[in-house]
Every structure is written in C-alpha cells, then in structure tokens.
Amino acid sequence: MYEIIVVGAGHAGCEAAYASAKKGHKTLLLTSNLKNIADMPCNPHIGGSAKGIVVREIDALGGIMGKIADKTHLQIKILNGAKGPAVQSLRAQGDKIAYPKEMIKTLNSLENLEIKEGMVEDLIVKENKVYGVILENGEKIESKEVILTTGTYLKADILVGSTRTRKGPHGEKPSLHLSDKLKDYGFTIKRLKTGTPQRIDRKTIDFSKTKIEPGEDRYLTFSFDLEPQYNIDEQEPCYLTYTTEETHKIIRDNLNKSSMYGALDDIEGIGPRYCPSIEDKVVRFSDKERHQLFIEPESRYYDDMYLQGFSTSMPPEVQEQMVHSLPGLENAKILKYGYAIEYDAIYPTQLHASLETKIIENLFTAGQINGTSGYEEAACQGLMAGINAALKLEGKEPLILKRNEAYIGVLIDDLITKGIRDPYRLLTSRAEFRLLLRSDNADQRLRKHGYDVGLIDDEQINRLNKKISDIEKCTNYLKENKLKLTPEIIEIFNENKIVVPQTTISFEQLLRRPEITIEFIEKLIDIPFSDEIKEQVYINLKYEGYIAKAYKEAEKMLKLEEKQIPDDIDYDKVKNIASEARQKLKEVRPTTIAQAIRISGVNPADISILSVYLKKEYPNEN
Fold it and tell me: Which of 8, 284, 366, 528 is 20 to 30 Å from 376 by CA-CA measure?
C-alpha cells in the first residue's frame, strides 16, 4: 500500500514523485521503461522564452529541474538580454545522456520513493474515488492517491508519410487501454499531435556555412541554490542556418506525401500552433523567403545534432532532399528521421486548480496528458500535482498560485478555465502581469510557498531573507550617498556622453534616469554588494512606476478573486445569460468571478447578470 502512485516518469512524473517523497509520503513511481526516466525525445534544451522563468519558479518552490539542468547542460544563455527584464529568460542546451542520469541519481536518494517498471492500463475506482492502479499483467497496486503523467504514450501513433504505427517516441509499446478507461469513467478525451525533426551526424556537417551561436560569456544558473557547475570556455556551441527556396520548393512539391497534408486521411490530432512543422511554416508563411534553423548538440557522449525548427512528417526519401537543400548540410547523414506523434489527452477544464480531477476524487493529472507541450510546462504541473496530492493527504488546503504570482499560475488557470485547442505552450504574452513575473525575482515571489509546504529548508529561506535585506540596504546606500561634481566626475560624464546633473542628487536619483546604467554608477562610486543585488536594485528603481501600476491592476483582480461562486450553483436558474455563456460556465464551473471573466465565451453582460444573481441568491457569501 502506497500513499501516492505516480504513473509516468517523464519531467512531470519526476517532479511529482520528488515532491511527494520529499514531503515524507510513501511514493511509487511507475514507468513503462526504466530507461526512459526524464527522457528528452525532442530537443534536450531546458528553458527558453517564458519557459526559463518557469524553471526558476520550479526551483524557487523546491523542485529539481533547474538544479539538474545546471549540473548537466552543454551551454546556457539569456534570451532577450537587450530587452526589458519582463521578457528575459534563461535557455540551456541540455545533455540527453547526463540529464536523465543526474535525475535518476537524485530520485534514488529519496528514502520514501520506490521506482518500478510497469504499464498501467486501468485505475482502481470505487464510488468516484481512486484507490490505486491496475497493470497490463493484471497486478493491482493500491494507494490513497494517483497522479497520471503519461506524456504522449496514451494510444500513441508515430506518423511518417503514409504510415501510421502504434508506438511511443522511441518505438516502445504505448498505453493501449488507459485513455479508453478514462473515457468510460466520464472524461472527455482529446486527440493531439506533436513532432520532431531529424538527427544529423555532426561529422557530416559543414559548419563554415553556418553562423556559430555560443553560450553566454558570464556565469548563469537556473537554481537559486547552486553555484555555476560549468566552465564558460568549455560550453558547446550551437549553429544557425536557414531554409532556402529549394527547400520550400521540395516541400511544396511533396505536400501530399506529408502525414499532415494528405498522405494520411484519418489524422485527428491538432498540432502545436507555436511549434509548427516545417510544412506548416512553408504553407502558412508563404511570403517568407527563409526560416531559421538551429543545429544543436544532443550530448557530449555522441555526435547526433538536433535540427531545431525542421519538424516534419514527410517520408524519409523526401526528408533526405529537404535536409540536403540546407546550407552546410548538403552532404549531411541523417541518423534519425523526423516524425509526428499523435496521442490522447484529457480536456483540462475537467480539473480543479489543484490539478485534481473533478470526475474522480484523489486522481491528479499533470503534463502532456493535460494538453500542454514542453518539458518545462510538464515539470511545473508535476511539481504542483505532487505538492497538492501530498497536502490533501495531510488534510491541508491546496497550493494554488495566482496569475500575478507565477507563470505556473497562469498556465494552470489557462488550462482549467479556457481549455485547449492545440498543445498549450507558455508565452510571455499569456501573462498580463509579466513585469511582476520576472526571471530575477522568482525566489522572492515563491520561495516562501516552497518553505510553507516543506520543500524549502531553513538555510534556503534564510538566504532569501538576507537577499531581501541586502536589496533594501543597497537601495538605502544609493539614497544616502550624494553625487559630488568634482572635475574627475564631470570628466567621466563627458567621456560617456551623458549630461551632467545641474543640481546635487543622490545616486539613487541618478540611477532612475533612463540613460544611466548600474555599470555607469559604478564608475562614480563603489557599490559594496553582489551583482545579483545590484541587478535587483536597478530593476526596482528603473521600473518602479510600471511595477507599481502592475501591482494596482493585480489588486483589482484579487478583489474579484475574493468574490466566490458557490459549488452548488445551478446555472440553469440564472436567467438572461447567453446560451454559450451558460454552457461554458456549466463546463468549467469557475470558483470565483475573476475566473468566470476569463472563460472564453462569457461576456461582460453575462458577468453582470451572474453577479446580480449571486447577491440575490447568496447574500451572505457576496
């Protein structure tokens, strides 16, 4: 008898099992193949736009993705470094061999965690409660709670040209019956699709025809706890190339051979809008002369290079032509052809904000089974499902992150409120409070939550408290010290072509000027604080007005979050709301007015009618 069973050992499953076991609960992690724990069937990179912020949030809460990435990556860089802090994110090119090894080492160190190989094909369900799982060999394993993190393995089909083969990403046997069982239990199942490009033999690429993309020339980490684990000068480079007109012609001439464009007529799955196949790019963006592609290493231990941006379901002979039309890859040897994969997922409006399902009590789901794409989106859901499953066992309220607190909160709220059409990917544009949800302040936003749920220890929280104290001290230091206009100081202003202040001002006031950087301030005065602290002070002062405005907007939202909608409300009794709004409200069953506002198809007029109804029928609750 286990307390929690986690089904699937991808990025969601690893985080869920880690959180559960770390909190002291007897946990079983079940995987259909022990060799696929923390597997990266697509590009082994971690982070990226918005996603890198999520990895920092996972670390702030006490999860492990950031630490594993820091210990094993091939290179790391900061994206959008020339733009504002709201859109800056870390991205690391991971090692496909080292990352899973380090993850397994970490999981094996947990005394409350057992890892077992087995294919789950059904659940033990009694009176709409889950009590364990049933393996394909008929073995029953009991538990108090179950977390499903099955990735793309539910009825998975590999699609290449006109062929459809029922198997997982590496040719393994997929889960054949679990999604049908979920449907029998009352879940709405949706068919989705994603894909991957070719792997190329490094030795056959002419890198002289590409542009080198090195890692950052300064040390960076996802984790707030680790010192850099790498040498800047030993980072592996990536390379940039582009499609050509010949590439586009080959694709257009062979579109009917692509699984997605006619070679298979029974495609149900909808592919990711923000990570389209190269066929989609050529068709949808026909005005583009070329599309950029990144040639990226998969590991230090072998020579496979990943062709980022060239996902396809064309037959192998067409892929050969396509690859050989690219600059630098004229003589490239393809080690593995690209493919699409179609799989089952549950429609996520069937989830509570805790990621427990509304249909079966004590059953949680996380990752691609909820309709998301990406390792980072999966990992953060796994962490939250693991935390909330453990909290429920402990008789405590779930941890629900708000949209102004974390990208994780944005992701989960979008899933359970808006549902999905295609695999969901996090973007900075999805967050209305993105200036508050920065990469640099994830620990200040979330570490206290991690401490409260037991995944962050005293040493970590004390380090955060010192950081917050140092930010205040550094700010006061700049306020208390005044700029003295000596001839030497004036010369520094002139050398940097910056207008000399006409009155005596503090360095804090000077730093607020748009053209002034913290590096310039340091030419005028020594600032006895770390680079991390100086960066925080710089952002806080530079964007103070915008940040204050964002907090005011967040306060308005939080007031609406306080307006609860009772669980027992009968929307058929709310007169005069639009039929679409009624249907969507019955499907999602929002818990607050704020959540109701965010439902697609529910208009302001419907919200007004609903608010009046709540005041009349539930006067003591609103």
Answer: 284
